[in-house]
Amino acid sequence: MRVAEMNWMQIEAQAQRDDRCVLPLGCVEQHAYLSLATDAILAERVAGEAAEPLGLPVFPVLAYGMTPGFAAYPGTVSLRMSTYVAVMEDLLEGFYRSGFRRIVLVNGHGGNSPIMTLATEWMGKHADASVRLHNWWAGPRFQAAVREVDPAASHASWMENFPWTRLEGVAMPDAVKPPFDAPAYQAASPPKKREILGDGNFHGRYQRSDNEMLALWQVGVEETRAAMVESWP
């Protein structure tokens, strides 16, 4: 259930029935020919589809994240780590005050992953709370399914090219992009990173069939749902 379609009284009652809630985490950054909001779109959608059969409330996606490496690409917006930590701590406190004790962060952007350090510190002050960070695209089942289709897959490649991340009127190159020089990229400034990457695809094909992508999507949804259910402390 989407929190955007609930009122405060319904949230209060829901937290009394089930102390789990879900927050998708995204980012606004270059994704080559795909939407700048790809990570936010995917995180919010996979969280919503995974949570729906469980009846868990999904808060609106935190669309902005930490992506300083792509700062030289127009449209990329990166929060400072101090800003992101402060926002996340305020959000966790808000969930806690609302009665939620098991919080699932469905993350769509690798640069946000360090936030689990803050979540662990926060749990030290709230011993009855539990926070789980699920990097949905990096789950072992999803990654195994990706490799079965095509192991050459990474940021802004076919792996993120779903019908809901494409842009109308934007044609995809019919090509396979070769891998870049990873050590040089890691040590480069944002302008140099752009020079190394070019259009922004890390490597691999730009698009695969919708049948393949929708099958992969179902794996991601099911694995995300399992993260909401299984192995809580």
Fold-level CATH name = Rossmann fold
Give the name of the CATH architecture. 3-Layer(aba) Sandwich
In terms of per-residue confidence, which ranges show pLDDT below 50 for 5 or more consecutive residues? none
What spatial form do the alpha-carbon principal axes imply?
Answer: globular
**The biggest beta sheet, please?**
3 strands, parallel
Q: Spatial order of the strands in the main sheet? A: 1-2-3
Element-level helix/strand string? HEHHEHEHEHHEH
Name the helicity range: 40-55%
Helix vs. strand class = mainly alpha
User: Which superfamily, in CATH terms, is the homologous superfamily?
Assistant: Creatininase
Please tell me the overall pLDDT. 97
Tell me the β content: 5-15%
Radius of gyration: 18 Å
End-to-end Cα distance, whole Å, is: 24 Å
Number of helices: 8
State the total count of DSSP E strands: 5
CATH class: Alpha Beta
- Tally the structural domains: 1
Keywords: Hydrolase, Metal-binding, Zinc
Cofactor: Zn(2+)
Protein name: Creatininase family protein
InterPro entries: Creatininase-like_sf (IPR024087), Creatininase/forma_Hydrolase (IPR003785)
